[in-house]
Amino acid sequence: MSPIVLTTADLLVAVALIVIGAALSFFLSLGLHRLLLVSAVRMAAQLALVGSVLLFVFGHASVWLTVGLLTCMFCAATYEAGARQHDRLGSGWHFGIAGAATVTGMLIVALIGLRTALQPHPWYVARTAIPLTGLLLGNVMNATSLSMNTLLSAITRERQAIEARIILGATRAQAMNGLIRQAARTALLPTLNQMAAAGIITMPGIMTGQILAGMNPLDASRYQVLLMSLIVSGNLIGATVAAYLTVWRLTDNRGRLRLERLLSRPG
Question: Which of 64, 169, 191, 218, CA to CA, is 20 to 30 A from 71?
């Protein structure tokens, strides 16, 4: 079976669906029509740009082009991972911790995948390394962001209880161990739900794309198992690293809680 190539007419059907959704939003006074149209235009422009860039990078087979594109992806993920929290660390620490945790979780599992199961030659070839990195980076970024957001909110809310534990002799890790576990569970919950529902309730996007591209369904399911395993492992690493680095930053060498290092957005 050959891949299904979409024509301009096929894309016009997709455009029509977006327009119909925007019209329904307008007539039902949902207030989503403008956001829906703007998001759709941004999505189309961004994906067309990415497709063009990848076509260029794949065609030139340059390790420096691959590294440059991956660096841009890392920088964007660092910003997005730290951009949406209400409570945040000051002086650049927030984005530094978000970026370090995201890149750490992604790099570990990406290298494992490239050096073991996938084994492209060379292992850093753009056609394999960039799509895998993009898939893992987006997921780990979300897990890192959820972990930091949950932990910072919990620390702000339970400040007195944390300080009481520290006064009674607990280390900073012991005083906030429950909050760290809660942050990690919250960060992993969407991925765990996705894994539990895969194949029974929903057909995962990776597997669906490969089947539409002509791959044997059983082979596609094997790829899905591998990639979901990499995703959940990367998410766990990223969320845990983000939580422990956040705790380290919000305490001093004597184990005292230092919430003056925490900033809050107004409102």
Answer: 191
The distance of Cα 161 from the centroid of its chain, to the nearest Å, equals 31
Confidence of residue 267 (pLDDT cuts 50, 70, 90): very low
Q: How far is CA 16 from the centre of its chain?
A: 30
Radius of gyration from C-alpha coordinates of the chain: 22
What pLDDT sits at residue 205?
72
Q: Rounded distance, CA 77 to CA 37, Å?
A: 24
Alpha-carbon gap, residue 75 to 190, rounded angstroms = 24
CB–CB of 169/102 below 8 Å? Answer: no
Contacts of 172 by beta carbon, 8 Å cutoff, 6+ apart: 166, 247, 248, 251, 255, 257
More confident residue, 264 or 81: 81
Indicate left, alpha or beta for 176 from its phi (over 0: left) and psi (-120 to 50: alpha). Answer: alpha
